[in-house]
Automatic annotation (TrEMBL):
It comes from Litoribacter ruber. The keyword Glycoprotein does not apply. This is Sodium:proton antiporter. Keywords: Membrane, Signal, Transmembrane, Transmembrane helix. InterPro entries: CitMHS_2 (IPR031566). It comes from the Bacteria. Pfam families: CitMHS_2. Residues 1-19 form the signal peptide. The chain crosses the membrane at residues 65-86, 98-115, 127-146, 158-182, 194-214, 235-254, 285-305, 354-373, 380-399, 438-458, 479-505.
Amino acid sequence: MKNYVAVVMLLLGICLSPGQELLALQTTPSQETTPEYQENIQDLDTDEVPESILEPEHLDEHGHAPGWLVIPFVLLLLMIATGPLFYEHFWHHHYPKVAVGLAFIVVCYYLFVLHNVHHPVHAMAEYIQFIALLASLYIASGGILIEIDKKSTPLANVALLVIGALVSNLIGTTGASMLLIRPFIRLNKNNIKAYHIIFFIFMVSNVGGSLTPIGDPPLFLGFLKGVPFFWTLEANWPAWVLALALLSTAFYFIDRKFGKTEDELALEEEVTYTNKFRMVGAKNFLWLLIVILSVFLDPNVLDWVPAIHYDGQKFSFLREIIMLSVAFLSYKFANQEAIKGNEFNFEPIREVAFIFIGIFGTMMPALELVGNFAKSPEGAALITHNTLYWGTGLLSGFLDNAPTYLNFLAAAMASQGADINSVTMVQDFALNRYEDSAFELMAISIAAVFFGAMTYIGNGPNFMVKSIAEQNGIKMPSFFGYILRFSIPLLLPILIITWLIFFAFV
């Protein structure tokens, strides 16, 4: 019970503490400290405190967002949830204007009222990185046609989902989702239902990518900060196995109960299947490989990579140029049979691009409040591997899980006198050289990835998979319908079991 109370206090504190100063939590060396935090630092032995905390390289001289500025973000979430349900015609035609307009309001407040350029520039850079990766993977995978001439059974579906979960660790959850969602839909073409797509999002688009830094953006950011490459495999595989086993079992019995009717089964028995596997456009795997390799071209890690220098930060541009070039070239030279067979078009990536302009633009105040409380003395006092699991997880479902991961990792490290901007300290934190630090990092990592499946916006591939499914005539649940009908009754119990087994009693 104490853990539940701590989580509630942590989340309430985040929501109710807009007036506190923020220790900026960016993927850059810049940090800010509150007067109270500075007083606490002065009381510590300076040998135990990182120099970057005692003397931050960059102090934001401007104000921070007031609490009410989260209203555009909340409004955008509500419109994403209710638009397709209650005012579909308006939403379908005007969602780009709504998303861009709400983001514009928040960005203008930062620029002209708070005179804070740092946050909008950083959000823009993150968005460009995000959309370049998603667009290149979406377009390159669209030129690969996979045909499986096999009878659709619950066991065959489970096998494809588990294969997708494994593949997501090699080409990322986005790459695996875009590569396999169409074959999965075709395999079940005679009786495809919403729960097929939901479990695909659970297993392939999220939970599956927990074993390598390539798998999911939060883990990759941790790797860039100094978490050893194979740490995620060593630390996360037991929870990965448990969650996938539970999800596979749940899907198997649901598919048996709600799958094909007796008439559909009788008709399917008359069809002869060759059980053959056919692939068209395999050359596009080379484009996917280029995208994955380019991910590592980060100027903050490799000094020789050219970068845009601004406000003491290094922003990548070579990586994004490569990715966008892949997007163009892979489509231009794609196998036309594969393009037509996949019924490929740009609407899903267009929808994601506009929706996430709104999300990245409006979520800045929300992320600021998260960091505000998590880094305050009050928030630090509540930090345990249990509160980190639930705090990171619940917020990852509604905020972008990558910056949420960084926020909570920075808070956990700071509570033990460590600095997220020190590669050595991050490595030590991962190797449990601070008290319970490996458990805390494991809690943050698993929660950021697993809870990303709680909503359509928790992780980039979720919304894209939904859009592709709807283009194939599959009626998907609304934003709230997804949460109430699937996330809470199916995913949440698995997240609770994962917590009970790996964290609650440690």
